[in-house]
């Protein structure tokens, strides 16, 4: 009896702990995969938190920054892998161009800025005439050094874990029997049953959710000559050397494949 009374006294002295009144952090909902340029341009800034939850108002959380809302299990892990790959690429340039900004954009997973930077670099590679007109003529591609195009391609492959890059596009082009309509559909540059070509930058996908070979972009609205010249550059040959073949080498190669009577 004494034992039972002691337990009752102990139970009477137990008090419930008060519930905490501290505000809980607000969590933004997980977004659908972003398409177009608006999502990629609002990526996680340097030093920012990679988590979707934070204390404060919901409208303070960007609902369009896919890189900041996916959480550490996907975006952060992918970014960490991309960092190591990009940092291992040697930034070679026979033209003396600076590829550090491109490397940084790809390291951060900002594929929209990386694509813009690649386009600007390609114009510089093509020479003063291309810089003056702000676009590249397809005949100028053959003058671009192998080292420079290989550096750009290596950065894209490292930053995307082998998903993007000119050499990746060349491989897919060969797999589609060099048929442009089939190739553009393969890399998701067309939409709908009628395969309408995506015209504006915002219509493309600047994330790893894009299909293999989707990036970098090359304007094909005026024809495919520029794109074909890029994919056919010696830099992306399997046994690419240190320089593009000269006129004599190309002439000999052409003569070897010519029937003689």
Automatic annotation (TrEMBL):
GO terms for cellular component: chloroplast. One of its GO terms (biological process) is chloroplast-nucleus signaling pathway. PANTHER family: TETRAPYRROLE-BINDING PROTEIN, CHLOROPLASTIC. It holds the Pfam family GUN4. Residues 93-234 form the GUN4-like domain. It comes from the Eukaryota. Residues 1-45, 241-261 are annotated as: Disordered. Residues 36-45 have a biased composition (Low complexity). This is GUN4-like domain-containing protein. One of its GO terms (molecular function) is tetrapyrrole binding. SUPFAM superfamilies: GUN4-like (SSF140869).
């Amino acid at each position: 009896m004494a034992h039972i009374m002691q337990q009752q006294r102990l139970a009477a002295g137990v008090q419930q702990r008060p519930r905490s009144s501290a505000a809980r952090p607000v969590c933004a909902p997980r977004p659908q995969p972003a398409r177009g340029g608006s999502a990629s341009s609002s990526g996680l800034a340097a030093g920012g938190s990679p988590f979707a939850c934070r204390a404060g108002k919901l409208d303070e959380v960007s609902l369009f920054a896919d890189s900041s809302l996916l959480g550490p299990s996907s975006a952060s892990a992918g970014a960490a892998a991309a960092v190591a790959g990009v940092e291992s690429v040697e930034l070679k340039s026979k033209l003396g161009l600076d590829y550090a900004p491109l490397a940084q954009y790809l390291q951060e997973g900002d594929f929209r800025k990386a694509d813009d930077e690649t386009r600007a670099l390609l114009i510089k590679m093509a020479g003063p005439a291309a810089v003056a007109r702000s676009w590249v003529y397809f005949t100028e591609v053959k003058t671009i050094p192998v080292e420079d195009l290989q550096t750009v391609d290596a950065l894209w492959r490292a930053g995307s874990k082998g998903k993007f890059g000119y050499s990746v596009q060349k491989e897919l082009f060969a797999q589609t029997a060099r048929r442009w309509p089939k190739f553009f559909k393969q890399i998701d540059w067309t939409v709908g049953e009628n395969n309408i070509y995506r015209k504006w930058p915002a219509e493309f996908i600047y994330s790893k959710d894009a299909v293999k070979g989707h990036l970098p972009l090359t304007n094909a609205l005026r024809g495919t000559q520029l794109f074909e010249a890029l994919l056919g550059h010696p830099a992306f040959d399997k046994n690419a050397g240190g320089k593009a073949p000269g006129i004599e080498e190309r002439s000999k190669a052409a003569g070897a494949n010519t029937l003689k009577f």
